[in-house]
Amino acid sequence: MTGIGNHFRRLTLMASAGLVIVVNVFAQSEGIRNWAAPLYWQPSAREAAVTGRAAEERLGTQGMAPEATASVSTAPLVFVAVTPCRMMDTRGYDSTFASGTVYGPPGLASGETRTVPVAGVTAGYCSLPAAAQAVSVNVTLWPAPGTQVQWITLWPAGITKPAASTINDYQGTMYNSANGITIYGINNAAIVPLGTGGAFNIYVTNATNLFIDVNGYYLAPSALALGAGTAAAPSLTFSNDTNSGLYSSAAGTVEVTSSGSNILTVNSSGISVNGVINNNTCTLGWCISTPTAKAVTSIANWTALLGQSEGTGTTIGVEGDVSSTTGIGGKFTNGAATGDALAAWVNGTEIMSADQNGVHAGPGMTGTPFAYGAFDSSANKLAGSGNISCLLESTWYGCELFSGGTQIAYDPTKYVVVVTELATTYDAYPRVASVFLDNMYTPNRIGLYFYGISGTSSVTVTDGVTTDFSIAVYKP
Fold first, then answer.
1. For residue 235, what are the domain limits?
2. pLDDT per residue over 122-165, tens digit each?
3. Domain tally for the chain?
């Protein structure tokens, strides 16, 4: 136990013989008054061993042997103040302290040790939680007239009585003096660790009554309990925003609220953001990762999921089930394997892609083409997108496609090519274009071959004709 300090006053009396007698009078009024208690208190290793084990037993957690002090945490305990209350009174003045209980009459006999449970019980006018590991008390001795009490000590139940006193009075100021002056009420404040059963022991050398007042208790910082709170009134808030913070809607659940609305829930099922995402489902659709579809396991997974490429398998960024409720279906990828920066798919068909050249849509050749251009007969580009160029070979044109500045292969199964002759004036004998896979080079190109048609009563076909033309490439 830790004594805080005796409360006393000096009384000066004039004796009949003209002598001045100075007596230290330790006084305690009947009204309960407060006294100083430190905000933090650090137990010794021996005290921590018994109080920590006792608290664990009361709270139903694993404890340790009472004297096993080698690995005991002696971190400071936190003071929780209460309205000063009387916990024990053996004088019989107040029926609240029932006779025959450890908190009431009779007084302590000479050499008696009394064990007083404190944590998790209601005693007198005090009620302390089971998590309390020490208590701040003010102890007042009230001996019978003519009785001397040499000393009293308080210590945690479950360990040997220490060689220390909480109050001592070897000079006997509490008994009737030779001058007929009766002195009552020597007291001292102390911090007493709570041992086995959340109790402390009291030992007195001589018979005496006593009363004990409490103004607070000490517990481990981790044992501080917040109220459950609500989204509108969270139990842990900020000084500038009292309706944003933490609260608990149910056991095993911690929630974050902002401006009175829940935004995040953590429980045994995982993390939920506005009720949308947790580790069992993704309400907005399946969230895909390598190598096959699976649900999001943590918010951090979104970074990796959105970075996946589509390729030819199921390794894609985000995929949603077709739903008449949400209107979401298909998948969204970065399409690196097909040369797209971003691509959207519905029912296994790519319907839109986007890269540095713009947004391209399909199927049915609707929307903006993937690449397009207008060329003269020598294959000089007159206009068009920057991702296509054409060369005039001996009897045909070879057109190259690009993505991100790199030439990509033409695949007839992935692209639709529309070619039209450009005639500046009326031409009665138009040219007809033939599109083929020009695989004479790597990567493959779009091959264009034009046929010339002439004659009036009969048709004459001429191969390998050069002409101005336009080309549009779509990705269905």
1. 227-268
2. 999 999 998 899 999 999 888 877 777 888 999 999 888 888 88
3. 4
